[in-house]
Amino acid sequence: MHLTEHAALPTDGRDKSVAWYSKEIKEDLTPARKLLEEYSGIPSDQVVAHIVNVLTLVSSCKREKAWEVHPYPCIGGFRFLHLSISQHPLYPTVLSRLKDSSQTLLDLGCCFGQDIRCLVADGVPSENLYGADLRLDFLELGYELFKDKGTLKTQFLEGNIFDVDGEGGKELRQLTGKIDIIHAASFLHLFTWDEQVQAGMQMVRFLRPMTKDALILGRQTATTNPGVKPGLKTTLGNKYRHNSESFQRMWNEIGENTGTKWRVKADLYEAIGWRRPAEGEDTEDRMMRFEVHKA
């Protein structure tokens, strides 16, 4: 459980004494530095100060505001600065597809929209990108961080992926059949097996039905011993952690439920700094990069 970004929080989840809340930026800033310099126009010698001013412990701090929105360890530990989409092996392919055609990408669980800014900085038309999250609180903070509210043409949507046919997900309904690529990082690992299947079925509905090269990619926490993890709870049960084989089985089930077929490629790896030391070591914990192709 110790690699998870969104594992079960204490009763007062906004408590800053927890192990995954850092008062200092300890992450590698190289990807974020490049983005803030070249995309946001922050002078090189002001990048760190900009991040500190916007994201740390001043009274107007946006990370503090984000921590109040929801105390995810990706916020408390500055992990949103990783720009995870750029580290995926398929990133060059994604860039090529989005730059050279009218194909669209949905960043599901987009948080600050940092990966969308990464794509735009690398030449993708921002109007071909969509971001979706349960709450849009983070997105205003993203505009302040990246200084692009007047220029970014990406459409951001608020909604519950489990309620797309109801009131809670009505904004997301407009995406049905419009998307070619879905980026879903640190998302599916939040849920039970059944919830992940339900979310996967909705992802399939977002994709263009006739797109032969439909693609879903991302990263998430994983394990060498797949199964339900009792210490990681959602409102409907315990979270399910995958390895590559169980992830393929899940997508087989999603395919059966949607009349589609999917081929998974997933690689497990160890990631330094993602375990939470207050909870000890679990040698089964891994991170997983995945790609799911329409078969």
Overview of this structure, please?
Helices cover 29% and strands 19% of the residues. With 295 residues, the chain is an alpha/beta fold. A 7-stranded mixed sheet has the order 3-2-1-4-5-9-8, covered by helices on one side. Helix 3 (62-69) packs antiparallel against helix 7 and helix 8 packs across helix 9 (244-258). It is globular and about 50 Å long. Residues 1-21, 57-63, 65-71 and 276-280 have low confidence and may be disordered.
Question: Topology of this structure?
Answer:
Layout: H1 30-38, H2 47-55, H3 62-69, H4 73-76, H5 91-99, E1 105-108, H6 114-121, E2 129-133, H7 137-146, E3 155-158, E4 181-183, H8 193-206, E5 215-223, E6 227-234, E7 237-241, H9 244-258, E8 262-269, E9 285-294
Parallel strand pairs: 1-2, 1-4, 2-3, 4-5
Antiparallel strand pairs: 5-9, 6-7, 8-9
Structure, briefly:
The protein is of the alpha/beta class and 295 residues long. The protein has 9 helices and 9 strands.
H-E string: HHHHHEHEHEEHEEEHEE
Which regions have little confidence, pLDDT < 50, spanning 5+ residues?
1-21, 57-63, 65-71, 276-280
Lateral strand order in the biggest sheet? 3-2-1-4-5-9-8
H/I helix tally: 9
Structural class: alpha/beta
* Backbone CA Rg: 18 Å
End-to-end CA span: 32 Å
> How many strand elements?
9
Global geometry: globular
Mean pLDDT: 82
Helix content: 25-40%
Major sheet: 7 strands, mixed
Amount of beta strand: 15-25%
Task: Fill in the keyword field for this structure.
single chain, 295 residues, alpha/beta, 7-stranded mixed β-sheet, 9 strands, 29% helix, disordered N terminus
